[in-house]
Specification:
The protein starts with a strand and ends with a helix. Helix 7 links the parallel strand 6 and strand 7. It has helices spanning 15-26, 33-42, 45-50, 56-64, 79-91, 107-110, 123-131, 164-169; strands spanning 3-5, 12-13, 53-54, 70-76, 97-102, 117-120, 135-139, 158-159. With 170 residues, it is of the alpha/beta class. Helix 1 packs across helix 2 (33-42).
């Protein structure tokens, strides 16, 4: 059994920094997906990661997993985003493999979900993971049982922080 942990929203909260850049560039309140995708290609991901809130509690737990059979599984919009995330993990002394997934692909298309665990803050990712035979756990940072898009969880076990002992029991 392998454990996969999502990056954005669990290790570091990149969305406030990304949205700040979006509003600076487009200066409208409604986020349009095609504009967001264009922005993602041009973003300086080192800067985004440097200006985002790091979840140091989860970083501390991840360090306990160094050299275990886990990976960080993250969607990316560009190669520069993937490289910046690898650099961030290295700078945090996290020795866990980073597996990247193109934004238009499903995580279960890149790695085998069958019998494996995914911790993610996006219910859409958890649904497709479960459909492919995996165990899915929702990470809810706001401790309200909702995912990162505000969707109410009705199906998955929930955690609010990464907990080494709990994860090792799953």
């Amino acid at each position: 059994m392998k454990l996969y942990i999502d990056f954005d929203g669990i290790i570091i909260d990149t969305w406030p920094s990304v949205l700040k850049e979006y509003y600076k560039k487009y200066s409208n309140c409604e986020v349009e997906e095609y504009k967001l995708r264009e922005l993602f290609k041009d973003l300086n991901w080192d800067l985004i990661l440097n200006n985002s809130r790091i979840n140091y509690t989860n970083i501390k737990v991840l360090k306990k997993f160094n050299n275990y059979e886990i990976a960080i599984l993250t969607k990316i919009n560009s190669l520069s985003e993937g490289k910046a995330k690898e650099k961030f993990l290295k700078n945090m002394n996290i020795d866990i493999k980073l597996k990247t997934v193109d934004i238009d692909e499903k995580k279960s298309e890149i790695v085998d979900a069958v019998g494996n665990i995914l911790i993610d803050d996006d219910i859409k990712n958890l649904i497709e993971w479960k459909e492919k035979g995996g165990c899915a756990i929702l990470y809810s940072k706001n401790k309200d049982g909702k995912d990162s898009d505000g969707i109410i969880n009705k199906e998955f076990p929930i955690i609010y922080e990464l907990e080494y002992e709990y994860i090792m029991l799953v």
